[in-house]
Specification:
Aspartate Aminotransferase, domain 2; homodimer; alpha/beta
Amino acid sequence: MSPEEFRRVGKQVVDWIADYYAGIEQHPVRSRAEPGEIRAGLPAHPPERGESFDDVLADLDEVLLPGVTHWQHPNFFAYFPANASGPAVLGDLLSGGLGVQGMMWATSPACTELETVVVDWLAELLGLPEHFRTDSTGGGVIQDSASSATLVACLAALQRSGQDVARRGITRRHALYVSAHTHSSVERAARIAGVGADNVRVVDSDPDTLGMDPRHLEELIAADLADGAVPTMVCATVGTTSTTAIDPVRAIGEVAARHGVWLHVDAAYAGVAAVCPELRWINDGVAEFADSYCTNPHKWLLTNFDCSLLWLANRAPMVDALSILPEYLRNEATESGEVIDYRDWQIPLGRRFRSLKLWSVLRCYGAEGLREHIRGTIALAREFAGWVREDPGFELLEPHPFALVCFRPRYSELPAAEADERTRRLLDELNDSGELYLTHTKLDGRVLLRLAIGSPQTERHHVRAAWDRIRRAA
Amino acid sequence: MSPEEFRRVGKQVVDWIADYYAGIEQHPVRSRAEPGEIRAGLPAHPPERGESFDDVLADLDEVLLPGVTHWQHPNFFAYFPANASGPAVLGDLLSGGLGVQGMMWATSPACTELETVVVDWLAELLGLPEHFRTDSTGGGVIQDSASSATLVACLAALQRSGQDVARRGITRRHALYVSAHTHSSVERAARIAGVGADNVRVVDSDPDTLGMDPRHLEELIAADLADGAVPTMVCATVGTTSTTAIDPVRAIGEVAARHGVWLHVDAAYAGVAAVCPELRWINDGVAEFADSYCTNPHKWLLTNFDCSLLWLANRAPMVDALSILPEYLRNEATESGEVIDYRDWQIPLGRRFRSLKLWSVLRCYGAEGLREHIRGTIALAREFAGWVREDPGFELLEPHPFALVCFRPRYSELPAAEADERTRRLLDELNDSGELYLTHTKLDGRVLLRLAIGSPQTERHHVRAAWDRIRRAA
């Protein structure tokens, strides 16, 4: 494709996307495709001869779109929204156009240095501690996902545990600590890192706050020590995936510090809320105790997936765990020690110029614009929660500190199991309608509906319509 | 950013990229930035108020571009090129615009099903075995990089070794087998998976072909068995990173099969060459012996990074190793067993709609166009190698089956160490000129220059000019 052809076709694609957003409400939020349906609409064999990009766009419209669940739809309230925004999409497009490999400083210095700048900017915007800054002992890096960030933290924790796991492998039993509400990525990291799912201990949660119980953590650590295991990492969550509950980071950190256990703070969803000074309390204990900290601009901060930020208080054990330098990658800059090679800060070797999209977002929105987005979505969530609270037919889970509201119809005439079944049927009916998309979770064995607000497309009337639709259906 | 603003700014960005490609030869190939220089040109603090995208583009031009090494430049011959192409960039733009999460089938069916279709298409185009197809026991998946693919293969191998590593963790010594020419990603996988770098055995290589010696592999496996270790995975390479040497996959496979050792074939660079029937001999032994196979369309097949394909002969041990299903991700489609959830096939949980870019490439080039690209770049490499061979002042490493040529000036009047030093100085001088960009490797302790051809922008006159420049400088 010549530059001139790219210019022509690229503008068609931009128009396609602009039209898509302008007309997004015409699509059912959740795809109605049946398993295998989309595949059946595509040729079984690849084309022998090249086709035009027009053909690609035509098939996108006709064959693929019916199989797309529209994550950017204003009525998408499922999971946690993964926000896109114009500046992010265009920053990412620039990254694609430049086609740069950022595995090392030397392979494209701007890719590394812009990343350093934006992760430091974001640390400042979120009020994170000075030692997370790159010019200190720590530093930040863009990962693809919080799961990868958790794994990197786990590898650093294993390395710091003094067993030289990178070299000798796992030679003792290492224990990781979570609560029942911690994201499954910690168990997954345990599986990947050779710790094993059986060595993930589940610390009790406070039944009211759902926060991890630091005394029980202390007991489990003591039991593991007595048993000859190596207590290695605890994960405290700020904003759990299920209900946005918050672990007591400071109290957990005190226990962890006492035993030399790595504290990873998973604030994948909620951490970005700290752009608002009035929400900065969520960072309590992070400066004093967190060895690593993760939050995802690709969830609630208007930056296309993938953009998950990991900061470390001390980058040395991570680099020890992950650094290898074969001859064909040797270069003067690396050997000078004056530069960062982010390949040593992540699982893959290669990396895209992901900082461009975050840079575009931080610049085009500015701190003000980001705060407005967080405050606006929280305000909508509060308003929705207010309607739920006032309706005697519904139960609301409180508190709801962010932009997720968990609730359920009371169905007080029914036994719990039947009420749950009704709630599930309600969920299916709502999602099948195509008018909105919610997901569910379970708490104390009971089904709860989750309504998460995050899209910049979502306005008050969408949330109101969702509530009316839910109430009608219940 | 409203759809109309996106339409306007998006077209500016498309123009920016088209202009960038049209004028790419005006840039020095390798950035001349000094450590810290780009960072110093950027504000230390994030903006309080939003700026316009014009400001972003202006800073891209003025501040960032001097720090960019131009991987898409026709005179970029370093590492392995990471090809971009118009269709790939635009397919990726569509992915960004849709902003879809593809972690599970249910989160956007088209994202999963298009991926299944294109990985099956590519398996067919490369003549890979039927059991790599998704409708068989195996299946393919898009990973971010070959390093991640190697890690996933290693986790599947550990799981198949019968120790239930996912659950119990590493409880015995597991051994992995490589040669001195295997990519460092295997050692990295050993570090990450808890196997440990010390348990990576280096099998001897044939001094002529640089291929792994299967008899020595057999000896090392026997020694490990005698020592109580679990021989777990051997990595055979088709096209090593250093010199594109080829391991004898069939002979290695026979040894591996005898001992129940997982055979991973790393064809990250060269595997895509099998789109040409005359190069399909590189697949010898894959159908009979490979448990997993990786090749990167993002290197030599015109698809923007990241797009690394991993196929498995049997997906079950991988899914066993990686699958966890928390309540908030439960859904009917997953529980029906009728769909693929690619989150169980990779390290992260979330995933982009990466198949769109590969689909765009396969459709816009067609099999014919892909073959033409592979054949054209190999022909240029052969012509370059011919010039080197005919020049008495140079030594050429043979064979050079793909589009990488390794060579060095003879400097026959100098002792080896001094000649190497001169070769390094030559490399620096060439790269500092900005006219072209090469990298180096070492073979038998001696420095070799690497010239890799891969960009669709590279024409015969660029390669000729590179040779003239090299000869002049030497």
